[in-house]
Design goal:
The chain is about 60% helix and about 10% strand. The protein is mostly helical. The strands form 2 sheets. Strands 1-3-2 form a 3-stranded antiparallel β-sheet. β2 (about 80-85) and β3 form a beta hairpin. α1 packs antiparallel against α6 and α8 packs across α10 (about 200-210). The longest helix is centred in the N-terminal third of the chain and has 26 residues, at about 5-30. It starts with a helix and ends in a 7-residue tail after the last helix.
Length: about 270
């Protein structure tokens, strides 16, 4: 896979992930939920009754983070908890009637998203292939099961990034902003507000965090005729962080090719709304 194909893969995977996150946020009422939280919420929704240990194993969240999430879900009236009959030391998280209703909404929204994403999924799969023959498509599956595998692949790619890129409040938006800044080769802060769906003060916070982590720098004098204009540019460390994702895509390439080929076939063009 050449450098151009890798760069295109990062762009398309980022776009797919952003669109998927918006769907999940719309259902759960979150804002740019981290991939680990999405995995945790989806495994609860898809399995209906699940232990906290299972949530941790699937999502990668620590015990305290799982406990905080379960408490939030209880407060929202979406789950209840009980001791496990199979293991009294384990705690089971059980969907309430309200939680079941939310799950059906999630399933419907994910189904629509997958139907609409067949084109980009096919482009991702074909763009990552080293051979011209397309991989065989898998059997049709429940959309939430497929969503879990998509999120797991996203979490695997995030794991290739430096720890500083995966920590802190709004880390998902920070990573998205870094990709935009690096891809543009220089961008004004205000140009990030709409794609990131944040206010100007929110952009300032995200940029401040990226600068503090050494991934981005503010530059003046880069705009002809406007010496006060600020342009954002990725630093060497920021470019290395993006490069780490590209390396991850190469390492995970075969798995990604098969997964997105399945997404493309799961949502054939004839079923687009």
């Amino acid at each position: 896979m050449d450098a151009t194909a890798r760069a295109r893969a990062v762009e398309l995977l980022g776009r797919f992930n952003d669109d998927m996150t918006r769907v999940v946020d719309a259902v759960f009422g979150t804002q740019w939920a981290e991939i680990e939280e999405i995995l945790a919420r989806v495994v609860v929704a898809s399995e209906h009754v699940v232990t906290t240990r299972r949530i941790a194993d699937v999502s990668g969240l620590g015990r305290r983070a799982v406990s905080r999430l379960v408490l939030r879900l209880q407060t929202e009236g979406l789950v209840s908890t009980r001791p496990s009959d199979a293991d009294k030391r384990a705690v089971e998280v059980v969907l309430t009637d309200r939680g079941e209703e939310q799950t059906e909404r999630l399933r419907a929204e994910v189904t629509t998203f997958l139907h609409r994403s067949d084109g980009i999924a096919r482009e991702i799969s074909q763009g990552l292939q080293s051979a011209s023959a397309p991989p065989a498509s898998g059997p049709s599956v429940d959309p939430l099961e497929l969503l879990l595998r998509i999120c797991a692949s996203g979490a695997a790619l995030v794991a290739y990034m430096p720890p500083a890129a995966t920590r802190g409040r709004l880390a998902a938006r920070q990573r998205a902003a870094l990709v935009m800044i690096a891809g543009a080769g220089g961008i004004r802060p205000n140009d990030l507000a709409e794609p990131l769906e944040v206010s100007p003060p929110g952009v300032v916070y995200i940029v401040d965090q990226l600068c503090a982590k050494g991934f981005v720098e503010r530059r003046r004098g880069a705009v002809p005729g406007d010496g006060r204009a600020v342009v954002l540019a990725a630093t060497a460390a920021g470019l290395r962080a993006i490069g780490a994702v590209m390396d991850g895509i190469e390492q995970e390439r075969e798995r990604l090719v098969a997964l997105f080929a399945e997404v493309a076939e799961w949502a054939p063009p004839t079923l687009r709304p």
